[in-house]
């Protein structure tokens, strides 16, 4: 493959491509479908970038420089049409579309599907409980490009703001997907039919990123052969950042029960439940059901149930300190996490009217959810972890000031709970090592950030291997240090050392004097 300059920066902005005449009928078909949907769109676009809101400054289209154009080595053979940019085309192999005027196969090139809107035939239909869905209106082959996920390309800041606005407006469906570390595609107001594809925990489609005229674009591709009439679905990899929990109605045997249940935010907030653990039953979690209009808990009972979920966390024998950085406006739902008494909660209840509670719930839980494209995070998950400092470039917060639900272990008080000085020192030493590994990782992130950002199209997929290796090494070191730290605590709980004279058990009856970890 010839490429005039390979290491050049690529813009993340989306190119607005227009479909050729043969595709126009399909676009018209989409237009009809959109107008008949519950969100009445004025027009349909076939490129990811849409200009509509005057207050919105969209990313600008980039003009691909000559030296950045990737040129494949395919040769068109009239007796074998598959010879023109098929599976073995070097551009296809690197998820890059050929550039018109530069492909050796000229008009025979088959690797311009995004640009030419070579979509599969699809049809909107009304699902039961999941709103609109999209189905295959023809047989689709495994690996086939189905449709581009189009919408407004917005910054992560804008995405965060919009998510909150949509939540406040009572919009129930999420249409913002991540394009790369810095940009998102919002198909809430404008988009292609791809916006109607629902989530499944056992999907027949997947998202893939392609470079089209130097810009990253997201397409929906078939994971398997799909028969006409079958609903299309992909795994949203939904990131849950708080807010209303949406029950997944995909019906798959391996269903995760909630949208975003696999995401860190969800797991931290709701705590991971294990097999046989019935603390987090569906009845105890405030649910948004697509079929209902009211996305927030509307009755006192529901709110009380919500607290009940948290209450059920009481009573564990060993408790570590919970992070209590919470704000008062949502304290009614989080008092147990903060360790406040039930008496307090009752007093609070008299202070808040039900309506105020509803509002507080809404504010505190502003749904900042986004759908990650599957392929986006397949390779190196480079970025600060939950304990790292926030990245400047990615501003989607988890939950505003909400205690994350994660229990933080602070080694000082824990170490002091052990009677043995030797154990105290051991635990303190491991915590220092853990802190150092965490800080090394943060420093490394700052160091490699420019390199990541140079690969603007996707910080996770396209960083050089050397950087990824550094990152993996530092992450492993941090994990090991964390493990050592926690192990030092667990080990000394399980096999306590006696206090005072380290060699001999102390106390009259020979029992060790280790203090048990309580509150
Ligand atoms: C990208 S939209 C999909 C189209 C949507 N059904 C509509 O009517 O516009 C995503 C939203 O659809 C709903 N949804 C998608 N998959 C779902 C599922 N498996 N179970 C429940 N709701 C689902 C959720 O409300 C989600 O936020």
From TrEMBL:
Residues 1-24, 377-410, 497-519 are annotated as: Disordered. Residues 244-260 form the Post-SET domain. Residues 505-519 have a biased composition (Basic and acidic residues). Residues 120-237 form the SET domain. Pfam families: AWS (PF17907), SET (PF00856). It is found in: Chromosome; Nucleus. InterPro entries: AWS_dom (IPR006560), Post-SET_dom (IPR003616), SET2_Histone-Lys_MeTrsfase (IPR050777), SET_dom (IPR001214), SET_dom_sf (IPR046341). SMART domains: AWS (SM00570), SET (SM00317). Residues 13-24 have a biased composition (Polar residues). Residues 1-12, 389-405 have a biased composition (Basic residues). It comes from the Eukaryota. PROSITE patterns: AWS, POST_SET, SET. Residues 67-118 form the AWS domain. Keywords: Chromosome, Methyltransferase, Nucleus, S-adenosyl-L-methionine, Transferase. This is Histone-lysine N-methyltransferase ASHH1.
């Amino acid at each position: 493959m010839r490429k005039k300059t390979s290491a050049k920066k690529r813009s993340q902005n989306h190119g607005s491509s227009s479909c050729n005449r043969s595709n126009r009928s399909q676009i018209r078909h989409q237009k009809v479908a959109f107008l008949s949907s519950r969100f009445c769109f004025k027009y349909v676009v076939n490129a990811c970038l849409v200009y509509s809101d005057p207050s919105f400054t969209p990313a600008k289209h980039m003009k691909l420089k000559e030296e950045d154009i990737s040129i494949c080595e395919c040769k068109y053979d009239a007796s074998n049409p598959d010879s023109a940019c098929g599976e073995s085309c070097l551009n296809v192999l690197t998820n890059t579309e050929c550039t018109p005027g530069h492909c050796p196969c000229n008009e025979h090139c088959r690797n311009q599907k995004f640009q030419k809107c070579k979509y599969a035939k699809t049809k909107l239909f009304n699902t039961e409980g999941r709103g609109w869905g999209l189905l295959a209106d023809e047989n689709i082959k495994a690996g086939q490009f189905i449709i581009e996920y189009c919408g407004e390309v917005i910054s992560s800041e804008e995405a965060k703001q919009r998510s909150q606005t949509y939540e406040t407006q009572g919009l129930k469906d999420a249409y913002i997907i991540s394009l790369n570390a810095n940009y998102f595609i919002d198909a809430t107001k404008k988009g292609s039919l791809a916006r109607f594809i629902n989530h499944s925990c056992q999907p027949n489609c997947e998202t893939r990123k392609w470079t089209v005229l130097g810009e990253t674009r997201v397409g929906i591709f078939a994971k398997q052969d799909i028969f006409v009439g079958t609903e299309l679905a992909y795994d949203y990899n939904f990131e849950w950042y708080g807010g209303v929990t949406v029950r997944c109605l995909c019906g798959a045997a391996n269903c995760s029960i909630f949208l975003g249940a696999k995401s860190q935010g969800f797991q931290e907030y709701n705590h991971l439940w294990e097999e046989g653990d019935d603390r987090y039953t569906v009845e105890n979690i405030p649910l948004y059901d697509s079929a209902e209009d009211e996305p927030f808990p509307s009755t006192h009972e529901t709110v009380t149930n919500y607290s009940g979920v948290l209450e059920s966390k009481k009573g564990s024998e060993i408790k570590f300190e919970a992070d209590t950085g919470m704000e008062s406006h949502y304290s009614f739902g989080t008092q147990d996490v903060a360790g406040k008494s039930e008496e307090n909660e009752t007093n609070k209840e008299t202070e808040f009217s039900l309506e105020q509670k509803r509002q507080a719930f809404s504010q505190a839980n502003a749904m900042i959810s986004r759908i990650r494209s599957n392929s986006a995070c397949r390779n190196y998950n480079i970025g600060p972890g939950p304990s790292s400092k926030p990245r400047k470039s990615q501003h989607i917060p988890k939950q505003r000031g909400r205690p994350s639900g994660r229990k933080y272990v602070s080694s000082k008080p824990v170490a002091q709970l052990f009677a043995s000085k030797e154990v105290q020192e051991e635990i303190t030493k491991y915590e220092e090592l853990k802190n150092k590994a965490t800080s090394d990782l943060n420093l490394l992130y700052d160091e490699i950030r420019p390199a990541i950002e140079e690969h603007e199209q996707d910080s996770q997929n396209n960083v050089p291997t050397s950087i990824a290796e550094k990152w993996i090494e530092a992450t492993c070191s941090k994990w090991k240090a964390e493990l050592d730290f926690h192990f030092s605590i667990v080990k000394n709980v399980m096999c306590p050392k006696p206090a005072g004279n380290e060699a001999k058990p102390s106390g009259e009856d020979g029992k060790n004097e280790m203090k048990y970890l309580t509150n």
